[in-house]
Fold:
Amino acid sequence: MKVGRIAIRYAKALFDLSVEQNVLELVYTDMEVLHNVCASNRDFRLLLQSPIINQDKKTSIFKALFADSFNIMSFRFLEIIIKKRREVAVNEIAESFITMYKDKHNIKTVYFKTAEKPADSVIAHLKRILVEQLHANIDLVQIVNKNLVGGFVLSVEDKQYDASIRKNINRLKKEYNINFYEPKF
Structure:
């Protein structure tokens, strides 16, 4: 079985149980923390993938990292994942859980790339427009990319609106593929 299928099944089980036990918000917060730890810490990812480190050691590491800060259901779930030797899929399980949570609460993640950090008023105005257009709650992720030169790139799900200067310059180059320089010799 592929990691993606395993992750979705385990995430669905955790999601359903957390809804049943009325701890969905707490488990969602825990899964976000777990996902951020996996995304930002290479050593932690290597620990999860290592077949050399035994289950007891992994469980004690998880206990040291998460036992005090995680909800009891989230922590027990992680212990089961380690016991079943599915710790390789922990990051994907967290991602799948977050996706399920966002689907349930009609939250869309929007990526907003700019060359410099925009003013707060611009962000507030953009959020209002996106809420009206998408009919959903917006989770706006701001990304500063100095290579953009100017303008912005807005990405939602599988759609992208590119209003960057670089895009316009490239479009003009293709449109006017003419060499204006003519040597006179």
About this structure: Residues 106-175 form one domain.
